[in-house]
Known about the structure:
The two termini are 31 Å apart. This protein is 30% helix and 18% strand. It has one domain: HIT-like (HIT family, subunit A), CATH 3.30.428. The protein has a 5-stranded antiparallel beta sheet with strand order 1-2-3-5-4, with helices on one face. The model has no long low-confidence stretch (mean pLDDT 95). The protein is α+β, with helices and mostly antiparallel strands. It is globular.
Amino acid sequence: MEDCVFCRIVKGTTPESVVYADEKVLAFMDIQPVNPGHVLIIPKVHASGLSDLDEETGASLFKVGMRIAGAVKRSGVKCEGVNLLLSDGRAAFQEVFHVHLHVIPRFEGDNLRISFGRKYSLRPEKSELDKIAGRIRDGLR
Length: 141
């Protein structure tokens, strides 16, 4: 996909600071980091969303994400914790429509906030949870 910045990075036509690469994924520094040490991990094959990605490559994204998270903690970069963040779809705030996993180093006072809606504190009835769980199980078939 010529118009996809991440595909251009995979092809080598857009420069990046590579952290890790294998046959399935590429990890590189985010050029607009939340905090120093912010890494993006992408599949080398174009996939707009998670459902467009095969499970093996999806698993590779998260395996590499776990390894990168540990490496960031050991790197000397200020890091008291890590967020792994993957936004899938416009409603989830995905901006680049090529699957990508953020590895974001976190530390006390870094000012990044993840906010849940007003209804977060309201707990649904178990029957409602069971009904939704059944619908999701059906979707697995």
